[in-house]
């Protein structure tokens, strides 16, 4: 137990040294570290609870995604049956996860089934070979055909929706000019957004809370809005309210002339005549063509600029707009014009997002937490160090050296993993000091016992290590299991605690098995002690 | 002030280190060598006490309940600080009551300028919580610094609670399997009983003290679990060793010997952990205050007691060591039987 070959001793020291050196970048300012080679740039990341910032958990509305898909199916069914000249009664109904249609003539059911089955596409992607399809078309009996969305197709759709949403969210967050935001998918229907340094997430939430579905549609002048409100709404039109107060109703045709997807750019600017904030935009080629054609056909009529089913403004087309650009004015402030421009540039979200969890820490509290955590860590370590010196004297010095290296190695490993340091994480390090000391205590107490049992100094030390190490391994693995579970279930600060606790256990076992032994072995070789001052 | 204290302590350490290295310090024995306390006899007292305390804890849990924090209950929490002078709680209360957001609690903490505001979960799902926090921010305005804002919708809160509980169970089962694998099943069962005892008593403590039960509490519980097991495993390791070495020693005596020979280690380790926790409790700030308080109770009070007075003596009832002469060594793992 006390014999090390030269190479082994060297290997142990080198390993410890390299791991400790990994912590070095943390002691230099970030800007300076940025100039170092990439492999040397790994460093600890402060958690949001320490550096301040906002954490938002957004949820994609899966019901909306499903409903939108079913509405699309409904339109497809209508069109397909009309094209095939198959009569159906009562329209296409959407209810309970499925669209249903009643075919009028019994003899038409089979041809209708065949036609509607053509709507069903194989699921794409890597799973394409599984034979799954995105629609299930079944004969529900009594002339009713049922089109439902299978589970796999729904999951596939959600996955794509999340991916698209993340891109849009990224673009919108980046527009805020924040530093290193983190945007990740979480689970099947959630997106996590972390923005370090953001103190007030109100604007961020406003930006992310809007779907930003932009549409240019014609105003339906056949019915005055007040009559439409009383229920005389034409089937091809919607009743929409104005975006800015007071709420004014508009009757707007369902048909979309040009959609937001055809925009290539949007900028906030000022109207040259009135000086009001406006948003000027540019269409791509196809958008420009559609817009120019629509404006040519409808000179003198009002059209509506609709954002998320609210009318921003409804100007009258004075002359055809052929240049593919225009501007929107609608009681904007500078800020709201800016926000709309951001939203239009970033594009529309495929489905609305809801904030389901929000945690914001101001920079003041973060700084306080760092200071308090540091102070507690220093005081805790110092108390433990003094206690060990008083209890074990020379061996206390060995233990303290081992613990100091241990803590340095924890920081090294945390930096190597680019781990996040949180306040509970600091608590985890302080507790690790307690555990690390325990491994020494186990060894030393065992040596004392072996000495009492009548062994000589060297044999007692040897036996002490041998017997204590098995115990150290057993007891640390149990704590490690707890830390691993904590890592798995925890988020944010709690996960930070699990990481430091887990890494602390690994370094503790490493130090106990190698460094502490090496130090004591070195002392034994040097002193050839007759008694152990323990 | 803090820096001078730290420098002073550093110098003290340096001096102590030199003195210790030179062998000039007197030897300190916190626990005398060769203690012979009859720990197992206490089982006739400790088991009923533990049973009674567990019943009290469970009763408390069902009558008082836990003070569910925002993580598990949902709602809004704001930690604010007046930008100058003391915070005017009365005025803030009037302002917030005017918003009609249901139950709103205001609480001063750590100085007259700090206020903790809790707004109960709003009916109407996730968007309603968001609307509520927006109202509060607008009403309180810019005269205060928002140090921490947490808003949790009801579903996420429910999920976090379910996840936390699941994690706790998962940890117990995982550790149980490990111990079963490393020791014999009686040891695993004994450790598990000790484990559940720890958690039940700690939950009782949380119920009495009404500290916030949130995600960090789950972290504290899991750490307590880890530490307590750490202790238990050290004693079990010794019991296993003694079982191999002394085939004829009566179980109560063997257990006593095992506990006594590891007693010094148990106490020294607990002193060090207590020192570390004390530092966190006194200087770590209020963000981790309840976390360390719970841990202090669980690790220092319950954990140690459990390992010595419950985990070890319970092995007698579980039939450990009854058939040693009939089946020598075959039931023990292959590793580590050189003694």
Q: Please, could you describe this protein's structure?
A:
The complex is a heterodimer of chains A (534) and B (339). In chain A, α13 (423-452) runs parallel beside α15. Chain A folds into three domains: 6-51 and 363-527, Up-down Bundle (Multidrug efflux transporter AcrB transmembrane fold), CATH 1.20.1640.10; 62-123 and 132-156, 2-Layer Sandwich (Alpha-Beta Plaits); 160-358, 2-Layer Sandwich (Gyrase A, domain 2). In chain A, the strands form five sheets. In chain A, strands 9-11-10-15-14 form a five-stranded mixed beta barrel. A four-stranded antiparallel β-sheet of chain A has the order 7-8-2-17. Chain A is 51% helix and 20% strand. The longest helix of chain A is centred in the last third of the chain and has 36 residues, at 492-527. Chain A has helices at 6-21, 30-33, 48-51, 62-83, 109-117, 151-175, 202-209, 225-229, 285-297, 334-346, 363-392, 394-416, 423-452, 457-489, 492-527, and strands spanning 45-46, 53-60, 88-95, 98-103, 136-141, 144-148, 182-186, 190-196, 214-219, 237-242, 249-259, 263-270, 277-283, 303-307, 310-313, 325-328, 353-361, 420-421. By secondary structure, chain A is an alpha+beta fold. Chain B is an alpha+beta fold. Chain B folds into two domains: 36-67 and 157-318, Up-down Bundle (Multidrug efflux transporter AcrB transmembrane fold); 75-152, Alpha-Beta Plaits, CATH 3.30.70.3400. In chain B, 63% of the residues lie in helices and 9% in strands. Chain B contains eleven helices and six strands. In chain B, the strands form two sheets. Chain B has a four-stranded antiparallel β-sheet. In chain B, α7 runs antiparallel to α8 (215-245), α7 packs antiparallel against α10 (289-311) and α8 (215-245) runs antiparallel to α9. The longest helix of chain B has 33 residues, at 251-283. Classes of the chains: A alpha+beta (534), B alpha+beta (339). Chains A and B meet through β17, α11, α12, α13 and α14 of A and α1, α5, β5, α6 and α8 of B. β17 (353-361) of chain A pairs antiparallel with β5 (144-152) of chain B.
């Amino acid at each position: 137990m006390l014999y090390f070959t030269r190479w082994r001793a060297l290997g142990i020291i080198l390993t410890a040294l390299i791991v400790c050196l990994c912590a070095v970048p943390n002691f230099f300012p970030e800007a300076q570290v940025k100039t170092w080679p990439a492999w040397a740039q790994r460093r600890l990341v402060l958690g949001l609870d320490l550096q301040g910032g906002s954490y938002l958990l957004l949820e994609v509305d899966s019901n909306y995604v499903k409903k939108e898909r079913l509405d699309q199916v409904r339109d497809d069914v209508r069109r397909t049956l009309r094209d095939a000249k198959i009569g159906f009664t009562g329209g296409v109904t959407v209810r309970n996860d499925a669209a249903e249609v009643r075919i009028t003539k019994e003899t038409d059911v089979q041809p209708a089934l065949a036609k509607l089955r053509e709507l069903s596409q194989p699921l794409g992607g890597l799973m394409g070979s599984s034979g799954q399809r995105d629609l299930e078309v079944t004969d529900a009996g009594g002339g009713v055909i049922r089109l439902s969305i299978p589970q796999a197709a729904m999951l596939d759709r959600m996955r794509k929706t999340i991916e698209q949403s993340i891109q849009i969210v990224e673009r919108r967050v980046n527009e805020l000019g924040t530093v290193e935001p983190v945007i990740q998918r979480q689970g099947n229907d959630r997106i996590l957004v972390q923005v370090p340094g953001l103190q007030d997430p109100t604007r961020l939430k406003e930006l992310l809370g809007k779907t930003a579905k932009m549409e240019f549609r014609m105003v339906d002048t056949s019915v005055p809005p007040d009559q439409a409100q009383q229920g005389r709404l034409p089937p091809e039109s919607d009743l929409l309210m104005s975006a800015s107060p007071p709420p004014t109703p508009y009757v707007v045709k369902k048909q979309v002339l040009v959609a937001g997807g055809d925009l290539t750019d949007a900028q906030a600017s000022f109207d040259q005549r009135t000086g009001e904030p406006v948003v000027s935009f540019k269409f791509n080629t196809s958008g420009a063509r559609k817009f120019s054609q629509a404006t040519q056909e409808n000179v003198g009529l009002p059209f509506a600029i609709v954002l998320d089913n609210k009318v921003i403004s409804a100007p009258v087309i004075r002359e055809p707009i052929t240049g593919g650009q225009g501007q929107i004015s609608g009681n904007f402030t500078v800020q709201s014009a800016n926000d709309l421009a951001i939203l239009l540039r970033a594009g529309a979200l495929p489905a609305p997002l809801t904030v389901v969890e929000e945690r914001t820490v101001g920079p003041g509290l973060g700084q306080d937490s760092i200071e308090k955590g540091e102070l507690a860590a220093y005081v805790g370590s110092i108390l433990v160090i003094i206690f060990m010196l008083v209890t074990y004297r020379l061996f206390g010095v060995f233990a303290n050296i081992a613990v100091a290296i241990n803590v340095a190695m924890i920081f090294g490993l945390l930096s190597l993993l680019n781990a996040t340091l949180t306040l509970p994480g600091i608590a985890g390090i302080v507790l690790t000091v307690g555990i690390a000391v325990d491994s020494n205590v186990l060894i030393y107490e065992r040596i004392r016992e072996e000495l009492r049992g009548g062994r000589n100094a060297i044999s007692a030390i040897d036996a002490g290590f041998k017997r204590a190490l098995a115990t150290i391994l057993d007891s640390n693995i149990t704590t490690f299991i707890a830390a691993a579970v904590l890592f798995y279930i925890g988020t944010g600060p709690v996960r930070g605690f699990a990481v430091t606790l887990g890494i602390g256990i690994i370094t503790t076992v490493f130090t106990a098995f190698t460094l502490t032994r090496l130090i004591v072995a070195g002392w034994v070789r040097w002193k050839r002690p007759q008694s152990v001052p323990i | 002030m803090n820096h001078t204290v730290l420098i002073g302590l550093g110098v003290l350490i340096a001096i102590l280190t030199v003195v210790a290295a030179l062998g000039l310090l007197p030897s300190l024995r916190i626990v005398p060598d060769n203690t012979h306390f009859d720990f197992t006899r206490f089982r006739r007292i400790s088991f009923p006490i533990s049973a009674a305390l567990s019943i009290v804890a469970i009763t408390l849990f069902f009558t008082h309940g836990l003070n569910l924090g925002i993580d598990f209950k949902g709602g809004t929490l704001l930690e604010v600080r007046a930008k100058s002078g003391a915070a005017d709680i009365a005025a803030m209360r009037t302002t917030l009551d005017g918003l009609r957001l249901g139950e709103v609690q205001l609480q001063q903490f750590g100085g007259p300028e700090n206020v903790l505001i809790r707004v109960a979960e709003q009916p109407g799902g996730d968007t309603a919580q968001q609307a509520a926090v927006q109202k509060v921010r607008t009403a309180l305005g810019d005269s205060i610094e928002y140090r921490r804002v947490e808003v949790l919708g009801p579903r996420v809160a429910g999920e976090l609670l379910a996840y936390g509980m699941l994690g706790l169970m998962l940890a117990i089962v995982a550790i149980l399997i490990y111990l079963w694998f490393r020791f014999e099943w009686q040891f695993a069962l004994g450790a598990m009983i000790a484990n559940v005892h720890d958690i039940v008593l700690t939950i009782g403590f949380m119920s009495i003290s009404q500290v916030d039960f949130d995600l960090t509490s789950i972290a504290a519980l899991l750490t307590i679990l880890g530490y307590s097991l750490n202790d238990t495993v050290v004693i079990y390791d010794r019991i296993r060793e003694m079982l191999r070495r002394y085939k004829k020693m009566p179980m109560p005596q063997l257990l006593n010997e095992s506990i006594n020979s590891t007693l010094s280690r148990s106490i020294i380790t607990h002193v060090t952990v207590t020192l570390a926790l004390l530092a966190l409790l006194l200087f770590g700030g209020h963000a981790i205050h309840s976390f360390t308080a719970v841990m202090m109770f669980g690790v220092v009070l319950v954990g140690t007691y459990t390992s010595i007075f419950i985990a070890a003596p319970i092995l007698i009832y579980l039939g450990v060591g009854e058939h040693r002469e009939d089946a020598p060594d075959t039931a023990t793992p292959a590793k580590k039987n050189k003694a």
